[in-house]
Amino acid sequence: MKKCYRGVFGVIILVLGLWIPAVGQTDLVLQNEINTDYVTYLDSLETVWLDQVTSVGGDTPETMKAHMGLALLGLAYTHVDGDTLVNDLEPVLNDAGDNFTSLLDTLTSTLTPFLTDPENPTALVDMLEEFFASGDYEAFRDSVDFYATQIELDMDEADWLLNRFFDAAGENLAQENFGAHLDSVARGTADFEFRMQIMGSAYEDTVFIFDRAFFTRMDSLAAEAEVWATHFEDGGNMIDAVMDDPDGDVMPGVNELRAGIVVMDEWVDSLKILLVKQPLAPLEADTAALSDFQDFLRETDALLAGEEYDFGPSAEAKTIKPLAILQNMPGRGLEDLYVDFYRAGDPAAYTFGGIFPSGLDSETRNLITADGVINADDGEEATADRLHQLRLVWRQEVNAAPEDPDAHLGLGLVELFDMVNLHADRYARAFDLLDQGRVDELVATFNWDSLDISDEMRSIDTHVSYYVESESPTHFILLEKYGDDDAGRYEIGANSDFGIVHVPVPQVVFVRANLQILGAGVGAIADGLKSMYTEMEDMFVMELDPSYLDFSDVESDSQLIRILEQSNPDFMTVTKYGVDKMHDIGADLAEGFGDVNDFFDSMEDLAIAMKPYETDFDMDGQIFIDDMAFMNDMTWSLHQDFAHPDSMVIIEDERVNLSAWFDDPPESFLRMWKNYVWGVDSTLGGLFPDRFKVDVSDELPTLPRKFVVYPAYPNPFNPVTTLSFDLPHKEQVSIGIFDLRGERVATLMNETMEPGRHHINWNAGQMPSGMYYARIRTGSQLNTVKLVLLK
Description:
Radius of gyration: 46 Å
Helix content: 55-70%
Distance between the termini: 107 Å
Number of helices: 23
């Protein structure tokens, strides 16, 4: 009750504010201008009234007036201290304002260029790298820190000034200087009338009267305030106490809050009466705001009673019941309600625990409805099958609504999944065929057009654009189900366990930007390869005599090569135009890989430039650098390979010259393949430069007619030599190495081999120098080769 008195009086005096001395029957006159005479005037009144309450005392009108005057003097002295505060605080706040303006100017001038669309994503990365590497970021950060520190210092000084004022005000309004006097008036019974005048203001002709009736009304107001405050405190505590309990009931707490609202409504009525009576009547207070507050109280009570409100388009007549939100909050209530939406048999009728009594409107329901269900236990093949099933669904949705953003994103994701898997397998298969020397199967199985992903990239980007540029709200959601249950593998039932995968628009925007960057480089590469395929008949001799093309009994590469040679000895010979075209395509590939490398080179520079400031961005700067460095090195190696004939790429610890055929095209791809199969040249036209190669001048034979073992080469050797032999038939072959004492020191092989010429290497790096013998045994023959190891 005492605190309520003090608060009301404080509001009165601080609002009125403008005070000057008065004459006549007025007991106290307050003024705006703070000067020595005014303070002396207040001090003189304080002396008189203190003498009355201490020397005379008693429950008399004179003593009650003195107590009233001393209480008001506490506020008057606070006004004096407040004037001092304003004078001291003004320059401090002005300085803080200047520093804040400088901070804002620094932020705006520095960050605006980055918010303007750059020419391309790489340009933005370059701008960021320059920003960090040049020291501009550090200067920017230091400037921001400086102005922020200055503002903080200004605020600290302002806080000190305010604390000084509040300390003084606290003393002025302390129990012994303010509250005790009001308490004495409140405990008293004598009628009294204390008159206060405010000169030099809108109320200078008005007298404010404090009397016993005013304190009686204050008593009633304070008592009501304590009641509603208790209801609110108890209600809040009761609700908080059940928040962690899944079975918690918030309604007892809600009922306490409603009881408090009823009492507060009555309290506002009492406050209105207080404002229109003396001493506040002269203020002619506008109670409209209090009436509005009462409307708010009554509306809040209706809400807590279960009132429903319109939600969504009026045509659908949907409502929301806010009380149900509170009722469902204990435990994981609201989270469980959201998850159960996907378990609901009829989502359109799902009420979210009564929050939406008649269900969601169609737009909101469509926004959170799952766009598809996958299963976490699916392998790669099953996942692909499921995505293709969903593709049919999303395609139907696009057919029905051509601009459906979610369906388009789904189609884009499936196309991206297929592209990654298809081309990963294709590239792996193509490289494997190259590794085996199967040029025939490579040509028959693949064409460069089938390895071109530019069309897929464009299609994916088109689908994604519908999602990121949608004018209506959209949000793509996939449910990832864990295991099987009675609902079916891709159905969500009442007891299904699943996770919710959100794909928000900002995430898709970022991914799309990266796909566009890579797509541009890949497109340039694909254009070069595609031009090679489309002009293949001009670049290579492709004619074959069909009378020789009987492949029914072909069981080996050598047999296939023999048929192709018989059909046309010049098959797959490179033409003059083909040589020039291969050179042109190599240049296009170099350019394409260069474009992709430019982006990752900029990204690595950005990562390095940001590393000193990693704590500013809560990131692991080294991981960022390592990732970008790997991509930079890989794309640079590819670019260098095609830009410079002597450059290589390391693939699985083996040097590979991917540009070999474009730098120096083989005279004949058929002969290159034949050299590989017969073991004369395993480099495949320089594609694998470190592999086996011998120099032969005679034309290669077809199939060997008898078993022949050739001298080892080199011999003497250190530490590797090659054993070569012709095998006319498929049979078991064993090769052992023996020393001069006849002891076996190595077994090079013991297995069934295909007919043809074979070359087997022996690395004697761990053996001592000396003479050794290699015994090459077939099913019916044995040959020995003398070897000399010189280290």
